[in-house]
Recover the amino acids of this structure.
């Protein structure tokens, strides 16, 4: 297992009681080099949640990657067959995504504030990822248009809301869920199908620009190559030798023809 550096994510002393709990998040490592961050959506989502809390110094965050193709013996003995993400709080391991989410909300200092209640937004971002997977499988106009229609609904919501994030001007759990999926759509869609989000989705692009400027996203974001390889594995496409030697790249820019400065 390898420790991931998480700059600015370690608050060591809480002003009120002189102590902050250390939370460890075990995430899947890259399937390319077995060390850097992998392309697991849930791992990134909880990484972002906890990073935001660490920035507020309510917790100290340690992120550890584990190579699931060659898991170390202590991982097998401690966690059996359970894959990451795994949250460790005061020696207690929390397994399974729903339980991790509930633990962050109810037991991690500051976590309750991240988990806002908004049925409209919850419904809005639901099934977005399944539409990406369907598009990559079918590669037809019907699946492409279904994904585009969903993205347009999110764009319309952001236009009406006219805030930096989905529910307001501060990030919440829904942003930590949506943005990793948008990144997968952008990177995998481009690689496998030359799919690109239309530039007329102005408010969606503005949203992504805001996210690209945040450490919570950039520090948790996997390399483009790892996102691509994630879907290659799903399609049983073998990685070529030269891909292991590539320098990791990260798509965190917006189309040059989009001038969003006037929207700020």
């Amino acid at each position: 297992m390898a420790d991931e550096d998480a700059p600015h994510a370690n608050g060591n002393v809480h002003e009120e009681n002189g102590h902050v709990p250390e939370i460890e998040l075990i995430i899947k490592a890259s399937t390319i080099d077995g060390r850097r961050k992998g392309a697991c959506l849930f791992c990134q989502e909880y990484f972002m949640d906890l990073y935001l809390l660490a920035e507020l110094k309510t917790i100290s965050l340690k992120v550890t990657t584990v190579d699931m193709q060659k898991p170390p013996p202590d991982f097998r003995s401690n966690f059996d067959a359970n894959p990451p993400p795994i949250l460790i709080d005061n020696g207690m391991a929390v397994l399974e995504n729903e339980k991790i989410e509930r633990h962050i909300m109810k037991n991690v200092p500051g976590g309750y504030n991240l988990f806002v209640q908004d049925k409209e937004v919850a419904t809005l971002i639901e099934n977005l990822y399944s539409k990406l997977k369907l598009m990559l499988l079918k590669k037809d106009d019907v699946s492409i248009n279904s994904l585009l229609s969903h993205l347009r609904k999110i764009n319309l919501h952001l236009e009406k809301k006219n805030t930096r994030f989905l529910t307001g001007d501060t990030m919440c759990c829904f942003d930590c869920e949506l943005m990793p999926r948008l990144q997968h759509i952008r990177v995998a869609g481009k690689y496998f199908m030359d799919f690109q989000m239309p530039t007329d989705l102005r408010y969606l692009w503005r949203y992504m620009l805001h996210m690209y400027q945040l450490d919570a996203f950039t520090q948790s974001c996997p390399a483009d190559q790892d996102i691509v390889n994630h879907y290659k594995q799903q399609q049983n496409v073998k990685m070529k030798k030269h891909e292991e030697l590539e320098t990791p790249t990260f798509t965190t820019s917006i189309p040059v023809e989009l001038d969003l400065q006037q929207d700020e």
Remarks:
- Strands lie at 2-4, 22-28, 60-66, 86-89, 92-94.
- The two ends are 41 Å apart (CA to CA).
- Residues 7-16 have pLDDT under 50 and may be disordered.
